[in-house]
Design a protein that fits this description.
- Helix content is about 45%, strand content about 10%.
- The radius of gyration is 23 Å and the shape is elongated.
- α8 crosses α11 and α8 crosses α12.
- It has about 300 residues and is of the alpha/beta class.
Length: about 300
């Protein structure tokens, strides 16, 4: 593993539920910072304990448990289980990609037992173990301060405000992460369209070299661009990949929020729709366009092979 850099702080104990791609690396980074981490995962090959019950029993009060499981039912079920296991004064941090509207429900359920709640948007992917994670927290200031040694160990090296934000009350952390990921959709789509145009042109003969030359000194340089350069170095024409792209939820939710707030987001919306298009082998909508062009103008059409 690459060298891990982190902000020093007083060691704390943390229970971590979910040791997938993100959770596992977070555990490693936190341990490298000197913190006592007890991790649980259904995959017992990576788990420190056999169950969430055992994880809670291993922690000293007041306890802090961070959840990193898929959003939806897995997160809700984990929250409900912890509500019956933890005690008043304990703190739950929900760090997955849940929709922000779920946070009020989670906080209210835990509050019935006197348990505190923070929602934290986490960005950094598989590179976070070495580079640190961008963190956006929602919840009460005193709970954020209590968890700050954890946040300081996870965030990138450097000024705290360049890798961590207390975005607002409960729900604000996941809302901020939702918008972050919507922006990410738009940025990726712009780079992708530029790549396709370069590759389609007869003028540019070395597309990977051209894109790599944008890495320093240009206004479009970014970490996402660096990752595209890396992908092109491994597969210059991206011929080993299918042009099929899923969406994990945040892009859709960002567009929904833009509608609810009457905020125009044409770039983010178009990038989401482009992902939908990528899943169609033969677009019914474009069949209709082809049929209409043929009907009104006699334009040529290509017949289906079926």
């Amino acid at each position: 593993m690459p060298e891990i850099r982190f902000a020093k702080g007083d060691p704390v104990q943390l229970g971590l539920v979910g040791l997938g791609k993100m959770g596992f690396n977070m555990r490693e980074r936190l341990r490298a910072a000197g913190h006592d981490i007890v991790g649980y995962d259904r995959n017992q090959d990576v788990s420190d304990v056999a169950s969430i019950d055992e994880l809670v029993s291993r922690l000293s009060g007041p306890r802090v448990v961070w959840i990193m499981v898929p959003h939806g039912d897995p997160t809700r079920q984990t929250i409900e289980q912890l509500a019956g296991l933890l005690a008043a004064g304990d703190l739950v941090i929900e760090g997955g990609n849940s929709k922000y509207t779920e946070d009020q429900r989670n906080a209210a359920l835990l509050a019935e037992h006197g348990i505190k709640y923070l929602d934290v948007g986490v960005s950094g992917g598989v590179w976070g173990a070495a580079n640190g994670y961008g963190l956006m927290a929602g919840g009460d200031a005193e709970d954020v301060e209590r968890a700050m040694p954890i946040f300081d160990a996870l965030r990138p090296e450097g000024p705290r405000d360049e890798g961590f934000a207390h975005a607002g009350p409960v729900g604000a952390g996941h809302y901020a992460k939702m918008v972050h990921n919507g922006i990410e959709y738009g940025l990726m789509q712009a780079y992708a369209e530029g790549f396709e145009l370069l590759a389609a042109s007869d003028v540019v003969t070395d597309v990977p070299a051209t894109i790599k030359a944008w890495s320093r000194g240009t206004v479009v340089r970014s970490w996402l661009l660096d990752l595209l350069v890396r992908a092109l170095e491994e597969d210059p024409e991206l011929s080993e990949l299918r042009g099929w792209v899923s969406d994990s939820g945040e892009g859709r939710w960002t567009v929904e929020e833009s509608i609810n707030n009457a905020v125009p987001t044409p770039v983010i919306t178009a990038s989401l729709f482009a992902r939908f298009s990528s899943r169609q082998d033969d677009s019914p909508a474009m069949k209709a366009v082809a049929a209409l062009r043929n009907q009104f103008g006699g334009h040529s059409v290509q017949k289906s092979e079926g």
